[in-house]
């Protein structure tokens, strides 16, 4: 954190243009970073949104410089509440039915995230022709964004920004965990014998220990998830799908967990209509204009490129086997087993 603050201060006072460089202190669990500062954890509560049991210990913090961003992706588990504390952050969102247009990829692999193979950081404005529409909002300090289940999103800081979020569990997460356990099994076996350079392409840095997981552990994860689904139980016991992963919580023991989804989104919006505004929908023309503005920032810089799966047969195979439609069929086949 000290290094981050010093770098941001140096950048703000530098005469040279370093707009293509950024730093991100992202995805940090507050219960780990503020374990010795309970007052900070206790200051965070999501009770005003109907989740009084969730606080700082169930939240993550994101601190980034101008330009820091998260590639377009979809979270497999739950729905998301994001609170902007400092600075501004732009969100570009797409509904789940845009999955085909967004070219889903599991590379780089990390559990519970499905990335888009489209680049929204230095984009081709012609992307708007296929996507047709997008939902775009800039969060300001004090504002909270609700991201529905399986909505795709690209997120970028507009200046130095700080935000916190909490993922809200859903009943459908049980089957999603089974699907993710299947993907994890396949990717782990593909990783066997690959070079370090190949692993850097295939795996997200927070999954670098995946190659060390024994097959027995991976099979056990699949079996436990299968049993949970077949029992149709919301209680998932003491088993952790991956206790060492730095990604958001997988299987957790929490008998008090409250699930979102008991009421429709329409009822939810009606209940809080005096406090909630709908994220604006951009037309294809408006979306194209937005992407063009982003594109212009990089006309004189080296563009950040999306992973080109077509140029690598291994990546093609991984994406084919791990495509959400394929994994869903494998899951259904496993669940049909008595």
Provide an overview of this structure.
- By secondary structure, the protein is an alpha+beta fold.
- The chain has eleven helices and 14 strands.
- The strands form three sheets. Strands 8-9-5-12-7-10-14 form a seven-stranded antiparallel β-sheet. Strands 1-4-13-6-11 form a five-stranded antiparallel β-sheet.
- Helix 5 packs across helix 11.
- The longest helix has 19 residues, at 173-191.
- The protein is globular and about 55 Å long.
- It starts with a helix and ends with a helix.
- Mean pLDDT is 85; it is low at 233-247, 249-257 and 300-311.
What is the general shape? globular
Tell me how many strands there are.
Answer: 14
Order of strands across the main sheet? 8-9-5-12-7-10-14
The radius of gyration is 20 Å
Q: Helical residue percent? A: 25-40%
Strand content: 15-25%
Largest sheet: 7 strands, antiparallel
SSE sequence, one letter per element: HEHHEEEEEEEEHEEEEHHHHEHHH
Contiguous helical run count: 11
Uncertain regions spanning at least 5 consecutive residues? 233-247, 249-257, 300-311
Distance from first to last alpha carbon: 51 Å
Give the structural class. alpha+beta
Overall mean pLDDT? 85
């Amino acid at each position: 954190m000290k290094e981050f603050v010093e770098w941001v201060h140096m950048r703000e006072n530098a005469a040279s243009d370093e707009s293509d460089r950024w730093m991100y202190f992202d995805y940090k669990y507050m219960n780990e970073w503020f374990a010795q500062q309970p007052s900070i954890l206790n200051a965070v509560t999501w009770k005003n949104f109907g989740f009084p049991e969730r606080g700082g210990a169930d939240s993550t913090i994101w601190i980034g410089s101008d330009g820091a961003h998260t590639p377009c992706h979809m979270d497999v588990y739950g729905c998301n509440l994001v609170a902007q504390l400092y600075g501004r952050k732009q969100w570009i969102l797409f509904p789940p039915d845009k999955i085909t247009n967004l070219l889903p990829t599991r590379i780089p692999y990390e559990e519970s995230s499905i990335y888009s193979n489209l680049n929204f950081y230095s984009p081709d404005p012609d992307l708007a022709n296929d996507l047709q529409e997008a939902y775009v909002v800039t969060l300001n300090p004090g504002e909270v964004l609700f991201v529905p289940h399986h909505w795709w999103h690209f997120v970028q800081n507009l200046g130095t920004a700080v935000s916190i979020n909490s993922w809200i569990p859903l009943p459908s997460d049980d089957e999603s965990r089974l699907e993710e356990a299947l993907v994890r099994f396949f990717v782990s076996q593909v990783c066997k014998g690959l070079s370090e350079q190949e692993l850097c392409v295939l795996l997200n840095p927070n999954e670098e220990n995946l190659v060390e997981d024994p097959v027995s552990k991976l099979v056990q994860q699949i079996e436990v998830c299968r049993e949970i689904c077949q029992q149709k139980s919301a209680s998932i016991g003491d088993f952790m799908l991956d206790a060492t992963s730095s990604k958001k919580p997988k299987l957790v023991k929490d008998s008090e967990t409250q699930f979102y989804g008991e009421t429709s989104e329409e009822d939810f919006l009606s209940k809080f209509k005096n406090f909630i505004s709908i994220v604006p929908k951009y037309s294809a023309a408006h979306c194209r204009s937005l992407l063009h503005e982003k594109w212009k920032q990089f006309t004189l810089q080296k563009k950040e490129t999306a992973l080109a799966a077509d140029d690598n047969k291994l990546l093609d195979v991984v994406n084919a086997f791990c495509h959400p439609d394929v994994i869903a069929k494998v899951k259904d086949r496993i669940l049909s087993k008595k």
